[in-house]
Amino acid sequence: MNKITLHAIIIGEKAKEPLKYVESVMAVKGQGLEGDRYFYKQGTFNKPQLSQDVREITILPYESLEICNHRLESKLDFLDLRRNLVMKAFNIELVKNKIFSIGDARFKIIRTAPPCRYLSRLLDEDMMRGLKYIGGYRAKIIQSGLIRVDDDIRIEEKI
């Protein structure tokens, strides 16, 4: 079995602005990734009528970018897909209904993160088609802690 590793951490301070790669970040329970737009309640989807308990963090399997680029005949980067954590060898079946750790932080998957029309408009690409069924996952931070690129993901327990 391949181990799951954290390939990239992506954050951005404000909605609609370009995102950036960072080597490490604090994952803060109930808030998200320090320095990210959702941590500061500045994300596009930080609206009172939308549930905020699914806004803490987004996870994208590493392989999703290649599949998306093939579908769209494009050359998008992980930054373009606007997800926070990119994981190599990610397998939802291994982490579903379980707590998992990255670095000192602990997480649990809440639901899928399907593509939205906002991303399609932002990139001028049909992201609904490009990321169909491979758009990633939303997770909640169960315990705050520092996470770093190349950290292994440790699966801990069933919920």
**In order across it, which strands form the biggest sheet?**
2-1-6-5-9-8-7-11
Could you name the CATH topology?
M1 Pyruvate Kinase, Domain 3
Rounded to an integer, what's the Rg over CA atoms? 15 Å
Oligomer classification: single chain
Q: Give me the count of strands.
A: 11
Q: What's the tally of helices?
A: 5
Short description:
With 159 residues, this protein is α+β, with helices and mostly antiparallel strands.
Task: List descriptors.
eight-stranded mixed β-sheet, 11 strands, M1 Pyruvate Kinase, Domain 3, 5 helices, alpha+beta, 159 residues, single chain, three-stranded antiparallel β-sheet, globular
Task: Explain what the structure shows.
The protein is of the alpha+beta class and 159 residues long. The protein has a single domain (5-158), classed as M1 Pyruvate Kinase, Domain 3 (Beta Barrel), CATH 2.40.33.20. The protein has helices at residues 63-72, 78-81, 92-95, 117-123, 127-130, and strands spanning 5-11, 20-22, 24-28, 32-33, 57-61, 85-88, 98-102, 105-112, 137-143, 145-148, 153-158. Strands 2-1-6-5-9-8-7-11 form an 8-stranded mixed β-sheet. A 3-stranded antiparallel β-sheet has the order 4-3-10, with no helix packed on it. A hairpin with a 3-residue loop joins β3 and β4 (32-33). The radius of gyration is 15 Å and the shape is globular. The two termini are 22 Å apart. 34% of the residues are buried. Residues 46-50 have low confidence and may be disordered.
